[in-house]
Amino acid sequence: MNTKKLSIIFAGTPEFAVPALEKINLAGYEIKLVLTQPDRKSGRGMNIKKSAVKQKSIELGIPVCQPEGLNNNIEVINKIASKKASILIVVAYGLIIPDEILNLFNGHIYNIHASLLPRWRGAAPIHRALEAGDGETGITIMKIVKQLDAGPMIRKEKVSVSEEDTTEILSKKLSEYGASMITTLLENIEKGKVIKLEDQNEKNVTYAKKINKSESIIDLNDSPKVLCQKIRAFNPFPMININFEGKNLKIIKAKIYNKEISINLAPGKLCLYGDDLLLKLVSGVIKLEEVRLEGKKTMIASDFIKGYQVMKINSVNH
């Protein structure tokens, strides 16, 4: 392998993968081809939309390939092989990469994963870390193996999780860490440094299953703490929501309310105490700070109160 001039095939799709693509390019490594998922219909108008990685690749002048799948895709396999690239880097690509492609890189196949492996292998590590109330998460750079996210680890970086972090905020933070870490790895490979590998402890594995839209339906049996974790985890998608006067009301931001509503109010009901917009749960209360009513823009609770009738209460139990 020529350690003077590494060349890269980059596979990634969402916004999370963009900083790594940019940083590798900025560091002067030749990205010979970008693999990204096909353009998809999205948004209210269901318009065809390019992936964030495709948009950035076009901007950087890097060739893009968008197969629907890679298994037995001789045309794409031959295209990748013809590039004679040194290294494959995968960041939230979203498609399984078969052995016929992995075998082209002489073991130099690396993945940026948004958790401290072996915790949260799988599709939604950031969401699940927030949902579980993890105080820290991070990035793991690992070698790719056949089993999902089970490869030997090269480097891990811890990142603290704050009370204000949503999946959107934490994704941006972690993507920048991952970009710096993968660029450092490339520099070390180029310098001929020995890359140490650490096997994952299978006893400590947890799985971050894919987010399902049905998880947006509020569970009024959740404690205020668990519900607030879910609200942060499912922002920006799929958003925890409640029914308000027959319309869908998404909860964008909320906090635990450390007082009990004194009147007998059904769980799921909104009420107003002073300037506080409160939601009664089976056990406990949360204070809503930002909401989005179906067909409307996101608004802070004080603006929502001005526009919509919410039952007022006169006292709470401290």
Give your account of this protein's structure.
The protein is of the alpha/beta class. Helices cover 25% and strands 29% of the residues. The chain contains eight helices and 20 strands. The strands form five sheets. It has a seven-stranded mixed beta sheet, with helices on both faces. Strand 6 (87-91), helix 4 and strand 7 form a beta-alpha-beta unit. Helix 1 (18-26) packs parallel to helix 2 and helix 1 (18-26) runs parallel beside helix 6 (167-190).
Topology, pairings included?
Blueprint lengths: L6 E6 L5 H9 L3 E6 L4 E3 L4 E3 L2 H9 L3 E2 L8 H10 L3 E5 L7 H4 L6 E5 L7 E2 L2 H7 L4 E8 L9 E8 L6 H24 L16 E2 L15 H10 L7 E4 L2 E11 L2 E2 L8 E4 L2 E5 L4 E9 L5 E2 H7 L3 E2 L3 E2 L1
Parallel strand pairs: 1-2, 1-6, 2-5, 6-7, 8-11, 15-19
Antiparallel strand pairs: 3-4, 7-9, 9-10, 12-13, 13-17, 14-20, 15-16, 16-17, 17-18
Helix pairs in contact: 1-2, 1-6, 5-7
Structural class: alpha/beta
| Spatial strand order of the main sheet | 5-2-1-6-7-9-10
CATH class of the largest domain: Alpha Beta
> Rg from C-alpha positions?
23 Å
How many structural domains? 2
Overall mean pLDDT: 94
Percentage beta strand: 25-35%
- CATH fold group of the largest domain: Rossmann fold
The CATH homologous superfamily of the largest domain? Formyl transferase, N-terminal domain
Helical fraction equals 25-40%
Order of helices and strands: EHEEEHEHEHEEHEEHEHEEEEEEEHEE
Molecular shape: elongated
Distance between the termini: 69 Å
Query: What is the total tally of β strands?
Result: 20
User: What CATH architecture of the largest domain do you see?
Assistant: 3-Layer(aba) Sandwich
